[in-house]
Specification:
Blueprint lengths: L1 E2 L2 E2 L4 E3 L8 H9 L4 E8 L8 H6 L10 E5 L3 H13 L4 E6 L4 H4 L11 H14 L5 E6 L9 H11 L3 E5 L14 H9 L4 E4 L5 H11 L3 E4 L9 H11 L8 H19 L1 H16 L5 H8 L5 H41 L1
Parallel strand pairs: 3-4, 3-10, 4-5, 5-6, 6-7, 7-8, 8-9, 9-10
Antiparallel strand pairs: 1-2
Helix pairs in contact: 1-10, 3-5, 5-6, 8-9, 10-11, 10-13, 11-12
Bound molecules: flavin mononucleotide.
């Protein structure tokens, strides 16, 4: 999969998620197998460039290439300026958000609301592509405004004419929000016409689903959002399955603990202790989903107010899980030994 001059190591991409795909999470996903990760959206309102949030979102220090930064807005000149600003701050790919249904974004006619105004889409894409002539520009859309207005094919043509170099599509309309199932027919129809790489997105949660979506749509790559929350190793699992048709074993509790601990230390480092501790809460909740007694642990953990308390709680919780896992392994071993002994007796 190639975007501009960047040859990705594979075709598995982390979807942009505001409040989630910060630098620590993007780096972790890349370490664990993702070929690219798109940043949280950065506002095109230059009045906010100085804010701590926007400065943080434009901080890519040490990030593995290519650094893809998503910008959001509705004004062509402001988006062009945002693209220049982010390229000056290390962005190597500029992604434009026309896929987000969030009210905060759509009310100002940005995100997926833009799909309704095709002329404006063209003006925005041209302005951004011209503003950063040496940087590939990509676009992220939904299939259309609502089920009666699925205009993804028209948007594809506008994007291609404007010089956009890849198109990511979430298989829902703006009106669908996150309800129902993502559909892949519209993505397949767009791919059949496309001259640029198409990235399929929506409800890809497992290696099998990844293989299915790639085959069904013919897309060049897939993009994964929610399923990677608390499961950054999903990318290596998918890559292995696509290459071999076989499943990697799920990570053991000890590995989950190591990955989570490294992740939260990175969050403290990136955001500072107080904000880092707050951001870490949701990640800790995601990683511990499905582990024994985790609901109780999550509830208690969300009340903690310091980094030390949070780390100790995580250490204690995983020590318990690993102790249980060892006891379970020991018990399983004893059962196996018992079975073998019985087998030996019956053979004699
Ligand atoms: C918490 C959250 C934040 C999101 N933020 C953005 C965003 O900033 N920009 C964007 O284009 N899409 C955003 N999305 C949409 C995702 O990129 C993706 O298109 C959507 O979640 C469907 O993919 P999935 O089923 O793999 O999660 C967000 C989704 C979630 C769940």
């Amino acid at each position: 999969m190639q975007i501009g001059s960047f040859l990705l190591k594979n075709n598995l991409i982390v979807a942009p998620m505001a409040g989630v795909t910060d630098r620590p999470f993007r780096q972790l996903c890349k370490q664990l197998g993702a070929g690219m990760a798109v940043s949280e959206m950065v506002t095109s309102n230059s009045l906010l460039y100085g804010s701590a949030k926007t400065r943080r979102r434009a901080d890519h220090e040490g990030e593995v290439d290519p650094v893809s930064v998503q910008i959001a807005g509705a004004d062509p000149a402001m988006l062009a300026e945002a693209a220049r600003y982010n390229v000056a701050n290390g962005a190597q790919i500029i992604d434009i958000n026309m896929g987000c249904p969030a009210k905060k974004i759509c009310n100002v006619m940005a995100g997926s609301a833009l799909l309704k105004d095709e002329r404006l889409v063209g003006r925005i894409l041209e302005a951004v592509v011209q503003a950063v002539p040496n940087t590939p520009v990509t676009l992220k859309i939904r299939t259309g405004w609502d089920k009666e207005h699925r205009n993804a094919l028209t948007i594809l043509n506008i994007a291609q004419e404007s010089g956009v170099q890849a198109l990511a599509m979430h298989g829902r309309t703006r009106a669908c929000g996150y309800t129902g199932e993502a559909e892949y027919d519209t993505i397949a129809a767009v791919k059949a016409e496309a001259k640029i790489p198409i990235i399929a997105n929506g409800d890809i949660v497992s290696p099998e689903k990844a293989a299915f979506v790639l085959a069904y749509t013919g897309a060049d790559a897939i993009m994964i959002g929610r399923a990677a929350q608390g499961r950054p190793w999903l990318f290596r699992e998918i890559q292995h399955y696509l290459q071999t048709g076989e499943h990697l074993p799920s990570p053991e509790v000890g590995e989950i603990y190591r990955v989570l601990r490294g992740h939260i230390l990175d969050l403290y480092d990136f955001y500072g202790d107080l904000t880092g501790m707050r951001v870490a809460r949701k990640h800790i909740s995601w990683y511990t989903r499905g582990l024994r007694d985790s609901a109780q642990f999550r509830h208690a953990m969300n009340q903690l107010q310091t980094v030390d308390e949070q780390l100790q709680a995580v250490d204690r919780f995983f020590a318990q899980c690993m102790d249980l896992a060892h006891r379970f392994d020991d018990a399983a071993l004893k059962i196996d030994e018992g079975r073998e002994a019985l087998q030996g007796e019956s053979d004699e």
